[in-house]
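Exercise 7b. Backbone tokens:
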């Protein structure tokens, strides 16, 4: 069985861990059935201190590879911040990005490979040689796509900042007037992305941010069209009208979508989504043209997460059968 999972950071990574558990997938991503291909969001990527940082790819890689800081959900376990302190002592900006010492090594490897001309997909593959995440990890694109957020400025005009500045420095507290994927229009899917979708038995959308994670994967030309031809089942990141963690409501507000399981499904639309899992709190959230099922959606531990993955796989199989 071949499964494709477009993913952001924490929500995507935790779901993937449950999916692997449910399918009994080990640490060898190739030559193993069932096979999971992750299409990672790179819209959050940012260059700081000359280093290309890919927060979502790294969160998935560290989580599945056993190197994640579990409590935090991002960054390395047993992390220290000496490099960050030293950079601050030089007056280097920005100081708001949490760059840990262990993490820096990952970014140095990436920077060196990129300087030598390797595309991000090849760099990701090389990094995964160490972490053995048990999935094939593809960035959504090798091209540079960066999510920027348009904010009001003091002079009554508008200014755009990188998504990370809005999300981390401002804690998404400044109202976003617009969220723009800079470079998305001209991007091409990374090698293997469209093929993986075409060959997939099922595509599962984890409970990732619908705007800046899944939304940015969908913004790469050709990806949405390919997904529309596949059987796609999504897991709602919104439970009872609120994001489970993080500030996805601020992103939804920026694009004029209500923070509810139903509104997110409507936003994806019936062309993209065939099935949609909502929490029991949102039972009865019917959406035209989409098969909705309700079950507990808190990924509280690997068992609970595996049960969510099972439900998504079952619904995908059911819908696939109906199509045949
Ligand atoms: P990020 O890139 O680290 O922000 O992570 P993602 O985009 O993958 O996921 C963030 C989303 O995951 C948020 O909208 C959360 O509401 C959602 N999320 C986090 N934990 C859970 C959970 O246990 N259950 C569900 N259903 N959603 C969750
Ligand atoms: Ca992210």
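Sequence design result:
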């Amino acid at each position: 069985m071949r499964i494709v999972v477009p993913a952001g950071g924490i929500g995507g990574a935790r779901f993937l861990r449950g999916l692997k558990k449910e399918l009994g997938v080990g640490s060898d991503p190739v030559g193993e059935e069932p096979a999971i291909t992750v299409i990672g969001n790179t819209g959050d990527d940012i260059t700081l201190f000359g280093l290309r940082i890919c927060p979502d790819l790294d969160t998935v890689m560290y989580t599945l590879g056993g190197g994640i800081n579990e409590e935090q959900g991002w960054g390395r376990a047993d992390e220290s911040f000496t490099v960050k302190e030293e950079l601050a002592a030089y007056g280097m900006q920005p100081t708001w990005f949490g760059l840990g010492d262990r993490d820096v090594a990952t970014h140095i490897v990436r920077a060196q490979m990129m300087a030598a001309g390797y595309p991000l997909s090849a760099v990701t593959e090389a990094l995964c040689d160490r972490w053995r995440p048990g999935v094939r990890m593809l960035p959504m694109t090798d091209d540079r796509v960066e999510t920027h957020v348009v904010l009001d400025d003091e002079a009554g005009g508008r200014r755009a900042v990188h998504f990370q500045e809005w999300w981390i420095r401002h804690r998404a507290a400044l109202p976003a007037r617009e969220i723009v994927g800079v470079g998305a229009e001209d991007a091409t899917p990374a090698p293997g992305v469209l093929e993986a979708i075409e060959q997939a038995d099922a595509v599962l959308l984890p409970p990732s941010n619908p705007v800046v994670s899944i939304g940015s994967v969908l913004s790469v030309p050709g990806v949405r069209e390919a997904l529309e031809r596949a059987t796609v089942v999504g897991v709602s990141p919104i439970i009872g009208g609120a994001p489970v963690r993080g500030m996805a409501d601020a992103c939804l507000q920026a694009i004029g979508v209500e923070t509810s399981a139903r509104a997110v499904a409507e936003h994806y639309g019936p062309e993209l989504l065939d099935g949609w899992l909502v929490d029991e709190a949102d039972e009865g959230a019917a959406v035209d043209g989409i098969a909705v099922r309700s079950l507990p959606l808190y990924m509280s531990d690997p068992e609970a997460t595996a049960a969510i993955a099972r439900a998504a796989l079952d619904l995908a199989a059911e819908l696939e059968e109906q199509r045949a």
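Instructor comment: The first helix runs from residue 10 to 23. Residues 7-12, 56, 59, 207-209, 213, 235-237, 239, 243-246, 248, 297-299 surround guanosine-5'-diphosphate (ligand 1) (CB under 6 Å).
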